[in-house]
Amino acid sequence: MTKKVLIAGATGLVGYAAMKHYGSRPGCDVVALSRRKPDETFGARWLPLDLTDAAACAALAPAFAGTTHLVYAALHERPGLVAGWREDEQIRINEAMLANLFAAVEQPALQHVALLQGTKAYGVHVRPIAVPARENRSEMHEQPNFYWNQERFIRARQQGKTWSWSILRPVLIVGCSEGSAMNVIPALGVYAAMMRRAGKKTLDYPAGVGRVAQAIDADVLARAIAWAGEAASARNEIFNVTNGDVFTWPNVWPAIADALGFAAGGQVPLSLDKEIRPREADWAEIRKQHGLVSGTLEEFVGLSFEYADYTMGFGRTEPGPPALVSSIKLMQAGFTEVIDTEAMFRKAFAEMQAKKLLPPR
Q1: Model-level pTM?
Q2: pLDDT of residue 144
Q3: Measuring CA to CA, how many Å separate 44 from each of 19, 20, 180?
Q4: Which residue of 127, 158, 205, 242 shows the fewest CB atoms closer than 10 Å?
Q5: Are 236 and 277 in contact (CB under 8 A)?
Q6: Helix (H, G, I), strand (E, B), or coil: what is residue 360?
Q7: Domain residue ranges of the chain, discontinuous segments joined by +
Q8: Radius of gyration (Cα) for the chain, nearest Å?
Q9: Tell me: the pLDDT tens digits for 286-303?
């Protein structure tokens, strides 16, 4: 039976990886939604859509007919990324986006909805978290977050229906995407290109003292989403998703530097958001020199300079508290794929280099 998969947020880290995964599967009719067109659609049919526009969502309802699986990976973020995570407006907009789309999608054929949350469900952005964080220890009644609004919406709509939902809580997501709010790969790739342009032979670590953390490869996450859409053990369940190992930024920095064609240098703190983001003219010269197809820094990196500073602990002089989650529930339910985090970073940079989004190694 043909599966019709609707992917919202197709230019983001998760949506792009999901589009790539489902596009490679036989018997999948894939429809991808985003405001701007992805550089590749992997056989998906792309439709431009602003999810904040309820009328535009309703107008596309005929195109959504027969949808069996909804992958909701859309996200509204704004400049001042971290500060906005608890703001009422951002919460309201993200809830409305899901509701607008769902009103046009919920039809008799629907079987499964995949929704994304993250470690902010455990309050990682405001205080130390219990280690390891488990799915039954979220902070729904403590910290305002659009996660809870979206989750309440989905739970309420699912009552009495035959379709099911799964919520995935990834940690730091790493992969190939352009203009995302939270993708360190283009941010670090641009930083390395700027350092090479300045004649540097080693790549200094620009951030603060590392804390023990985890990551998830976007392609592995996409396969976890696809698994959740079929597994009986995933119906109406919440799962943390990780690569299966832990890391600190200083310890993986040599692998990152090598993937970008450098030896690792020392720790030289540098705010990527303040020092690299404004250098559009330098980036234009780098793009011209290497024949890159990536856009301006605003188009290519999005808000990710700010996110890189945040997640890599720029300005931190003491190790932050560990931010570790348990993925035992996911593995016991049946999804056991893992990847080495250093290999993940190498893979992501190599993909962007091969697509001529970053200079060659």
Answers
A1: 0.94
A2: 77
A3: 7, 9, 20
A4: 127
A5: no
A6: coil
A7: 3-173+216-241, 175-214+246-323+340-354
A8: 20
A9: 999 999 999 999 999 988
Banded pLDDT at 128 (limits 50, 70, 90): confident
| Cα separation, 194 vs 293, whole angstroms | 17
Tens-place pLDDT, residues 66-113? 999 999 999 887 665 555 456 788 889 999 999 999 999 998 999 999
Residue 140 has pLDDT above 60, yes or no: no
| Residues near 114 by beta carbon (within 8 Å), at least 6 away in sequence | 69, 70, 71, 72, 165, 166, 167, 168, 225, 228, 229
Give yes or no for a contact between 220 and 309, defined as CB atoms under 8 angstroms apart: no
CB 106 within 8 A of CB 46: no
Cα separation, 130 vs 74, in Å, equals: 28
Tokens for 231? 């597994």
Between vectors from CA 92 to CA 313 and to CA 184, what angle results, nearest 5°?
25
Q: Concatenated DSSP letters for 37-93?
A: --S--TTPEEEE--TT-HHHHHHTHHHHTT--EEEE------SSTTGGGG-HHHHHH
What integer pLDDT is reported at residue 82 of this predicted model? Answer: 54
Q: Give the total residue count for the chain.
A: 361
CATH class of 3-173+216-241: alpha beta
Contacts (Cβ under 8 Å, ≥6 apart) of 84: 77, 78, 90
Distance CA 210, CA 254 (A): 14
| CA end-to-end span of the chain | 44
Q: Which two tokens stand for residue 223?
A: 């396969």
Write down the pLDDT at residue 288.
97
Distance from C-alpha of 229 to C-alpha of 234, rounded to nearest angstrom: 8
Q: What pLDDT sits at residue 229?
A: 98
Neighbours of 252 (CB within 10 A): 18
What strand order describes the sheet that includes 3-8?
A: 45-48, 28-34, 3-8, 69-72, 112-116, 164-170, 237-241
d(CA 347, CA 355): 12
Residue 5 gets which letter from DSSP? E
The model's pLDDT over 226-274, given as tens digits with 9 standing for 90+, comes to: 999 999 999 999 999 999 999 999 999 999 999 999 999 999 999 999 9
